[in-house]
Amino acid sequence: MAEKNMHGSIFKKLREEREYKLKDVAGDVISTRTLIRFESDETSISIATFEKLLENLDINYLDYLTFYYDNTDNETTEFANRLQKLLQSGSSSKLVNECKIELKKKDIEFSKRLTILIYLNNILWKEDKELFEENRRIIKDRIDSQDKLGFDEIYGLFILIYSATKADYSVEYIERIIEDCFKNIPVRNYLSKYMSAVYCDLLKVAISFLVRAGYYELAEKKCKETLKLYNENPLLLNRAAFSKEIVAILASLYLLQNKEEGVILANKILKYEDIVAEITGDPYYRQVRDVTYEAYCKANKTGLDIEF
Predict the structure, then answer these.
(1) What would the pLDDT profile of 97-152 be if each residue is shown by its tens digit?
(2) What is the pTM of this model?
(3) Contact, 293 vs 270, CB < 8 A?
């Protein structure tokens, strides 16, 4: 389930804090002996089995994840906080030095590698490419080696594809990612509700990659398939927001192809973002609206004005 397979020991800590006995949690899901081995991090169990154990423990998966990260990710959080302070102070070189020191250590946790990737993407650092490209390669290799992606791996793939160029991934690879998203987005149970939302984010950047790489026909097809999938899954978290993001991609796609439908969709997206900005009064949403407008104007090949 995660690097170093610590879910068992964290689960044990949570069970003991809630004063549940082994036999009560194991129930008819697994044997008490198997649960003991799992809590000792000696064996792994399927997500379906784990979800049933959480039900016996009377806790939902989201609350469990909060407990898990509160008890395992302190070191990574402290590291990320240091980088955030350096970013806010404008000390890019010091931020990079922190990352270089960390990358030269042995057995770096995957979450720290992701943190480094995120911050270096934020500052668009172009030097020390060999060291940082090695970090990117390790992240990609870790993701590609997994039969089933966890939250960290999905997020890592999101970051990689978000910042990728056409040369970084083949269209066949991106298509496989999209098909994997399609399989995992349908909401089947409590756990899949949250995993579905994560896969929606990954799907969005994968389709955006197709647009950037010039695979317009394929991107349009995947956008329409995505909207159909969303319509068929009313239990999907933030379904309206995810649908709007795909429509926004379609708008860009049509503008790039000199299609008037792009102007119509762009105007609708911008009107929506303008309403949100005005109602909330939040400068962030005004910035989102303005950035979206500039991006649409840049992509617009129709000769028609974009007005909202």
Answers:
(1) 989 998 888 888 888 898 898 888 877 777 777 878 899 999 999 898 887 777 78
(2) 0.75
(3) yes
Q: Determine the Cα–Cα distance for residues 79 and 115; give it in Å rounded to an integer.
A: 8
Residue 3 has pLDDT above 60, yes or no: no
Q: Which of 14, 112, 17, 9 is nearest to 63 (CA)?
A: 14
> Taking Cα atoms as reference points, which of 170, 96, 151, 158 lies closest to residue 126?
96
| Domains, in order of start, for the chain | 3-72 (1.10.260.40), 74-145 (no CATH)
Please choose, from the candidates 53, 61, 64, 4, the residue with its C-alpha nearest in 3D space to the C-alpha of residue 28.
53
The pair of structure tokens assigned to 305 is 């004005």
Query: Which tens digit of pLDDT belongs to each residue from 58-79?
Result: 887 667 776 776 666 566 778 8
Coil, helix or strand for 237? coil
d(CA 267, CA 90): 36
3-state secondary structure of 13: helix
CB 281 within 8 A of CB 265: no
Tell me the helices (H) and strands (E) count for the chain, helix number first.
16, 0
**Can you read off the two tokens belonging to residue 299?**
């992509």
